[in-house]
């Protein structure tokens, strides 16, 4: 009985969360009526199937593709560098012995739990002093050193086979060789999950670009869609559907790794 109730509750929640996505996709193919009506009402009265919204957003507007490639740049570069930083940092927290390690790790956890609004001002001041405001690095640099990746990898590395590490230390004293040849192969599932999490977070940036950037041509697609960019609602719906595609593809590709990584995570 409890299992059936749980399935029903999860099913209802799934429908509630999926319904806006479904309506967005369906309405993006809706032909606008010829009669003059408010757009918010017209979208609920389908007049046929049309690709006008997709044509307008991809061909008639120049900002969509520019914003799309900006998002690819920000999310792709930030994710790759964040993963490269998180792996050795997490390994150091697990295997290295140095003074103040626990205090530093506690600071990482506190920083991770802080609201975004708390960290925007210090990041803004630091980027301003380095003359990086209104540049691509203003978005990429803060994301590289996000503490979430270090925390996730550090928790997952508790499951590394200690005997394998000890055996490797008898063969070589190179920490990098042990890390990349022994430790990394054991945490590949977590790396895939981390890649998906970090990419999704940076793909959906809205607040940071509006604070750190001024030039519209450097804005990611998430901001341009949020601002409307002087575009009709049908085109915005089509743009929203296209905006979701990269995340859906990544999830479908990494979903097994994501489930396995979360299932074996030790908190």
Q: What order do the helices and strands come in, and which of them pair?
A:
Elements: H1 2-28, H2 39-42, H3 52-60, H4 63-95, H5 101-113, H6 116-129, H7 137-144, H8 147-156, H9 162-171, H10 175-186, H11 188-203, H12 207-212, H13 221-227, H14 233-263
Helix pairs in contact: 1-14, 3-14, 4-7, 4-8, 4-11, 4-13, 5-8, 8-11, 9-10, 11-14
Give the structure's gist in a few sentences.
This protein is mostly helical and 267 residues long.
Structural notes for this entry:
With 267 residues, the protein is mostly helical. The protein has two domains: 1-50, no CATH class; 52-263, MetI-like (MetI-like fold), CATH 1.10.3720. It has helices spanning 2-28, 39-42, 52-60, 63-95, 101-113, 116-129, 137-144, 147-156, 162-171, 175-186, 188-203, 207-212, 221-227, 233-263. The protein is globular and about 70 Å long. Residues 33-44 have low confidence and may be disordered.
């Amino acid at each position: 009985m409890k299992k059936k109730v749980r399935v029903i509750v999860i099913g209802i929640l799934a429908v509630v969360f999926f319904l806006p996505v479904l309506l967005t996709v369906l309405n993006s193919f809706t032909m606008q009526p010829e009669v003059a009506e408010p757009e918010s009402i017209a979208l609920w009265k389908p007049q046929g199937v049309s690709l006008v919204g997709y044509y307008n957003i991809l061909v008639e507007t120049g900002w969509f593709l520019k914003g799309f490639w900006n998002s690819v740049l920000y999310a792709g570069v930030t994710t790759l560098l964040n993963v490269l930083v998180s792996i050795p940092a997490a390994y150091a927290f697990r295997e290295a012995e140095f003074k103040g390690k626990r205090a530093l790790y506690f600071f990482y956890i506190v920083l991770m739990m802080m609201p975004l609004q708390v960290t925007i001002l210090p990041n803004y001041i630091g980027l301003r002093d380095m003359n990086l405001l209104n540049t691509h690095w203003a978005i990429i640099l803060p994301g590289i050193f996000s503490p979430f990746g270090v925390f996730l990898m550090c928790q997952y590395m508790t499951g590394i086979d200690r005997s394998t590490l000890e055996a490797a230390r008898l063969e070589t004293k190179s920490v990098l060789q042990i890390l990349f040849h022994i430790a990394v192969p054991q945490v590949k599932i977590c790396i895939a999950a981390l890649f998906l999490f970090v990419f999704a977070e940076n793909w959906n940036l809205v607040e940071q670009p509006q604070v750190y950037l001024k030039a519209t041509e450097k804005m990611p697609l998430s901001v341009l869609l949020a601002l409307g960019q002087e575009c009709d609602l049908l085109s915005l719906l089509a743009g929203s559907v296209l905006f979701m595609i990269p995340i859906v593809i990544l999830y479908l590709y990494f979903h097994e790794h994501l489930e396995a990584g979360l299932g074996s995570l030790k908190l």
